[in-house]
């Protein structure tokens, strides 16, 4: 644009002009749109100190569409006057004329016409004077001719009230020579090219300064899913703390591993149709470790290992029912069972982060599928204090430092704790996880030694 | 978590002091409860039905308290107050006693017909009880809470409470054909047969949920007194004749069901909670239940069980160092009366009938820790030294994920459950050929099967984002599920990788290039001859 024809003409005009020129006047003179001149001014400005442009606002009076019509045809009241013959005109007829309604009242107040209400066939309108001066039309024509200043303030505002005139703001530039004024514009380079380097011409060329306010070109990159990025971070935290990843690549689980092995009784509400997805096909687990199953059955129904048990009829077919796992604790149970088969006992730390399923109706705060994070430590002599210590380290790595612990209830842990953290934004304590020490009724049937405790905690990734 | 709604001022009056909301919230936190909401009847109606309907409703402040699911002794105001007072050492835990009456003992005779439908029953009497409107409401509310929780919506146990003075024992618990049962049910004005009642209650918002428990069975359970008056037709409805009112002085309680242990627990809970209001507080009059085989039992059991735990075991499990005497004190505060015995290291703990949740020493350990205060326990790090290992499949997945993103593809996370059409019809396959796992109780068609391929999920993601600037390049590395009879559950997961390119031009060469890149990363050369990979067209479908 800066090297366009309008810009060049402008510069030449400016060179010849005294002091400066007005953009609107120049546009009229050159016969181009004002916008084109404005564009040239702006692009010349970008080149540096070549010109100086001052934004000016001028106001002008212009006729509205109706105003233009009246300037042409005359005001309504004048037209009304002219349409009344010497013998007068019935008012009803007058009112039906195009300017009738508007013009009538104005003509009446100007005392150009009068109404004879007593006339034979209805009110009749007569001229009062012989001729009239259409002041309104004259004034509008003055404005049209660009001589609005000849009208008084009062007259102008009256016409504006009648919506015949509007005031229009026009923005123009007053352009004058800048400190680096020249009629020849040299084009600024935007890029350094290999030819310029090899020829050495870069030494003589002006370069356009970079516009650092504009955005660059974003690289065409792929992205990782935000939730899975958090998953990677948590995996990293567990590995840093020495936890080994458990296999959890089985969404389908049997009720046995999901509930019974965890000492969750068969009539527990979580085993309801409402909360758990049960399978139609395959409906039942094909194999279960039967020795272990018998021990679990006995513990549930009769007790043992120091427990009273739940004292109900434990059914094998209930334990066989397949489902979509409701927690990854079933994977932890499998891992602990495998650990228990290895003699002698070696302490272990396990973790998993994987998908779990709950039979919920979806809404803003509930999903049917979400990710559960679980950590497990199995060793001799672990205490509630150890559990809290591990949780503190774990949550500190997540950036959560203010923790409080609250007694809770889980069918498979005792003691159980809910972990709360203080949320600065919400200004209250919110639950960030659940934890506990696994019950002996769960661990001992697996074959783990009596003095081995297993502490565990879990939270959901989505939170 | 069950929620108990109590009137705040009633609660404070019973506790003997007032608390600010924050103070009470703190007390709940310590004890293992949660003050979930502070509201009023007016607010509740306002929220559910709008402000006009709430006009005239009470604005008495209500505390909604969340109670652990296994604490049946905290499901009513009476239990909460008792628990908190003992916890704060303001009162001693009451001792519940079963007493045999001076006159004749109430008898409930079970006939053999019940065996096929609802075999168990227990019973007890609350003698000379004094109800007020609040106590009466609390009594009814507790039954409802128990029904919803331990009774598993009346399927396992159903509770019936009756005005003993309107009846005369001995009582008979039997089962009859529905057409042979006729009585005036609670709050109705005329008599109906059981069949008619089953129909009438189909539209009752409360009772319709329980009909299925006995519906379509040949015999319905029913309890009569010696004059043929129907006490109740469990688990549906009681008779109107023996309805309890605020003025009732003697209550006959019967619990019937399919789980004997739970029926006994439920009875114990009700009588321990409300015997407080009997003339002889905390005493319950015995009732006798005779089973079809002639065996007779006396209820309520109100058994106190003793367990001996070593003090150092509790110290070790919690991670504290308290003297045996202190530990005994802590446990007594949790309603587990304890004293040091033997060599000074053993603690004998008496477990009351209200604490049916204590079934192992670990339950006792938890109570000691709660009384000590979880947040007072010193934190320590386990000395467990382990070397961590990654699960190889997940390790590979992580490596590939980063390289897929580096290749310009964006990761998607889609649902593992979908409709049958998604993995079959829409891909030109028959569902039986997919070896898919089918869900039996999906809430919507979107959860009929577990996905056997990642493709539908990615295509749906693209469809939801088709207005975004093109091209769309998505990938997902995640599990699919198929049936597999070689696995113990009959199904297994496979880790799949799927990538989709969506643009005005299909860009096969781009996906091909991505595949080449993946193989390059996995060190798999192209070409069958080198033991590498080849691409072949598949027949007509995916």
Automatic annotation (TrEMBL), chain A:
Keywords: Acetylation, Aminoacyl-tRNA synthetase, ATP-binding, Cytoplasm, Ligase, Magnesium, Metal-binding, Nucleotide-binding, Phosphoprotein, Protein biosynthesis
Name this protein carries in UniProt: Phenylalanine--tRNA ligase alpha subunit
One cellular component (GO) term of this entry: phenylalanine-tRNA ligase complex
Subunit structure and binding partners: Heterotetramer; dimer of two heterodimers formed by FARSA and FARSB.
Organism the protein comes from: Lynx canadensis
MF annotations from Gene Ontology: ATP binding; metal ion binding; phenylalanine-tRNA ligase activity; tRNA binding
Segments traversing the membrane: none
One GO BP annotation of this record: phenylalanyl-tRNA aminoacylation
Sequence similarity: Belongs to the class-II aminoacyl-tRNA synthetase family. Phe-tRNA synthetase alpha subunit type 2 subfamily.
EC assignment: 6.1.1.20
Coiled coil segments of this chain: none
Cytoplasm as UniProt keyword: yes
From TrEMBL, chain B:
Alphabetical list of Pfam families matching this protein: B3_4 (PF03483), B5 (PF03484), PhetRS_B1 (PF18262), tRNA_synthFbeta (PF17759)
UniProt main location, coarse: cytoplasm
Domain B5: from-to ranges: 302-379
Cofactor dependence: Mg(2+)
Keyword Hydrolase applies: no
A Gene Ontology term for the protein's cellular component: phenylalanine-tRNA ligase complex
Catalyzed reactions: tRNA(Phe) + L-phenylalanine + ATP = L-phenylalanyl-tRNA(Phe) + AMP + diphosphate + H(+)
Subcellular location: Cytoplasm
SUPFAM superfamilies: Class II aaRS and biotin synthetases (SSF55681), PheT/TilS domain (SSF56037), Putative DNA-binding domain (SSF46955)
GO BP annotations, alphabetical order: phenylalanyl-tRNA aminoacylation
Domain of life: Eukaryota
A Gene Ontology molecular function term of the record: magnesium ion binding
UniProt keyword annotations, A-Z: Aminoacyl-tRNA synthetase, ATP-binding, Cytoplasm, Ligase, Magnesium, Metal-binding, Nucleotide-binding, Protein biosynthesis
Complexes and interactors: Heterotetramer; dimer of two heterodimers formed by FARSA and FARSB.
Family per record: Belongs to the phenylalanyl-tRNA synthetase beta subunit family. Type 2 subfamily.
Family annotation (PANTHER family): PHENYLALANINE--TRNA LIGASE BETA SUBUNIT, PHENYLALANYL-TRNA SYNTHETASE BETA CHAIN AND LEUCINE-RICH REPEAT-CONTAINING PROTEIN 47
Protein name (database record): Phenylalanine--tRNA ligase beta subunit
């Amino acid at each position: 644009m800066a090297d366009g024809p309008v810009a060049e003409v402008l510069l030449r005009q400016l060179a010849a002009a005294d002091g400066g020129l007005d953009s609107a006047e120049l546009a009229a003179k050159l016969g181009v749109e004002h916008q084109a001149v404005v564009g040239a001014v702006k692009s010349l400005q970008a080149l540096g100190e070549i010109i100086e442009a001052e934004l000016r606002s001028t106001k002008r009076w212009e006729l509205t569409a109706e105003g233009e019509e009246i300037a042409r045809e005359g005001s309504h009241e004048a037209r009304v006057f002219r349409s009344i013959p010497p013998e007068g005109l019935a008012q009803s007829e007058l009112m039906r004329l195009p300017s009738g309604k508007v013009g009538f009242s104005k003509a009446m107040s100007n005392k150009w016409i009068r109404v004879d209400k007593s006339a034979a066939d209805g009110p009749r309108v007569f001229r009062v004077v012989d001729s009239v001066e259409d002041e309104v039309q004259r004034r509008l024509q003055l404005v049209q001719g660009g001589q609005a200043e000849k009208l008084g303030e009062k007259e102008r505002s009256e016409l504006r009230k009648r919506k015949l005139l509007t005031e229009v703001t026009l923005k123009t530039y007053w352009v004058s020579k800048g400190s680096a004024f020249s009629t020849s514009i040299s084009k600024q380079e935007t890029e350094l090219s290999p030819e310029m380097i090899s020829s050495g011409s870069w030494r003589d060329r002006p370069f356009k300064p970079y516009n650092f306010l504009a955005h660059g070109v974003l690289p065409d990159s792929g992205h990782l899913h935000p939730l899975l990025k958090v998953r990677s971070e948590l995996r990293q935290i567990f590995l840093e703390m020495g936890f080994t990843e458990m296999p959890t690549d089985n969404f389908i689980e049997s009720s046995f591993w999901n509930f019974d092995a965890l000492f969750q009784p068969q009539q527990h509400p979580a085993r309801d149709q409402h909360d758990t997805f049960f399978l139609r096909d395959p409906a039942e687990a094909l194999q279960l470790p039967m020795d272990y199953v018998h021990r679990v059955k006995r513990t549930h129904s009769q007790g043992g290992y120091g427990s009273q048990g739940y004292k109900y009829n434990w059914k094998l077919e209930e334990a066989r029912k397949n489902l979509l796992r409701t927690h990854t604790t079933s994977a932890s149970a499998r891992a602990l069972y495998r650990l228990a088969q290895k003699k002698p006992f070696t302490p272990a730390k396990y973790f998993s982060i994987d998908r779990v399923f709950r039979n919920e109706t979806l809404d803003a705060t509930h999903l049917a599928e979400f990710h559960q994070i679980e950590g497990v430590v199995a060793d001799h002599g672990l205490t509630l204090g150890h559990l809290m210590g591990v949780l503190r380290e774990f949550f500190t790595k997540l950036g959560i430092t203010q923790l409080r612990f609250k007694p809770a209830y889980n069918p498979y842990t005792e003691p159980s704790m809910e972990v709360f953290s203080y949320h600065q934004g919400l200004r209250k304590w919110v639950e960030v996880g659940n934890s506990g020490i696994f019950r002996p009724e769960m661990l001992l049937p697996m074959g783990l030694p009596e003095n081995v405790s297993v502490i565990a905690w879990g939270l959901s990734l989505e939170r | 978590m069950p929620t108990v709604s109590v009137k705040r001022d009633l609660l404070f009056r019973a506790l003997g002091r007032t608390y600010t909301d924050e103070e009470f919230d703190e007390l709940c936190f310590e004890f293992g409860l949660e003050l979930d909401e502070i509201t009023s009847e007016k607010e509740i109606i306002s929220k559910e039905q709008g402000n006009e309907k709430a006009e005239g409703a009470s604005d008495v402040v209500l505390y909604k308290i969340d109670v652990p699911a296994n604490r049946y002794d905290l499901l009513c105001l009476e239990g909460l107050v008792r628990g908190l007072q003992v916890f704060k050492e303001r009162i001693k835990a009451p001792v519940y006693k079963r007493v045999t009456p001076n006159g004749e003992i109430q008898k409930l005779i079970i006939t053999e017909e019940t065996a096929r439908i609802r075999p168990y029953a227990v019973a007890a009497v609350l003698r000379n009880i004094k109800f007020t409107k609040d106590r009466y409401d609390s009594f009814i509310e507790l039954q409802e809470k128990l029904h919803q929780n331990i009774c598993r919506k009346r399927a396992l146990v159903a509770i019936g409470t009756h005005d003993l003075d309107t009846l005369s024992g001995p009582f008979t618990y039997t089962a009859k054909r529905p057409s042979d049962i006729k009585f005036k049910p609670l709050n109705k004005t005329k008599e109906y047969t059981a069949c008619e009642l089953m129909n009438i209650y189909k539209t009752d918002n409360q009772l319709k949920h329980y009909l299925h428990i006995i519906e379509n069975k040949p015999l319905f359970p029913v309890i009569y007194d010696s004059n043929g008056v129907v006490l109740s037709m469990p688990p549906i409805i009681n008779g109107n004749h023996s309805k309890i009112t605020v003025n009732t002085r003697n209550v006959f309680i019967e619990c019937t069901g399919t789980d004997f242990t739970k029926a006994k627990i439920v009875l114990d809970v009700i009588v321990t909670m409300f015997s407080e209001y009997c003339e002889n507080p905390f005493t319950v009059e015995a009732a006798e239940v005779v089973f079809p085989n002639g065996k007779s039992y006396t209820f309520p059991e109100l058994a106190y069980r003793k367990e001996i735990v070593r003090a150092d075991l509790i110290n070790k499990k919690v991670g504290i160092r308290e003297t045996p005497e202190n530990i005994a004190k802590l446990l007594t505060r949790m309603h587990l009366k304890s004293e040091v015995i033997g060599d000074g290291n053993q603690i004998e703990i008496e477990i009351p009938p209200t604490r049916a949740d204590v079934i192992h020493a670990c339950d006792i350990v938890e109570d000691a820790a709660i009384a000590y205060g979880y947040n007072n326990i010193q934190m320590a790090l386990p000395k467990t030294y382990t070397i961590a290992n990654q699960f190889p499949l997940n390790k590979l997945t992580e490596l590939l994920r980063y390289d897929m993103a580096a290749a310009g593809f964006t990761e998607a996370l889609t649902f593992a459950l979908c409709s049958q059409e998604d993995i079959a019809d829409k891909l030109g396959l028959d569902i039986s050929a997919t070896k898919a796992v089918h869900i039996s109780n999906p809430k919507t068609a979107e959860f009929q099967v577990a996905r056997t391929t990642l493709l539908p999920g990615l295509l749906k993601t693209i469809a939801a984002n088709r207005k975004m600037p093109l091209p769309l390049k998505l990938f997902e590395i995640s599990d699919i599920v198929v049936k597999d009879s070689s696995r113990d559950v009959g199904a297994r997961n496979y880790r799949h990788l799927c990538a989709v390119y969506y643009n005005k031009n299909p860009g096969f060469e781009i996906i091909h290039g991505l595949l080449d890149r993946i193989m390059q990363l996995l060190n798999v050369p192209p070409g069958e001859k080198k033991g590498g990979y080849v691409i072949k067209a598949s027949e007509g479908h995916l």
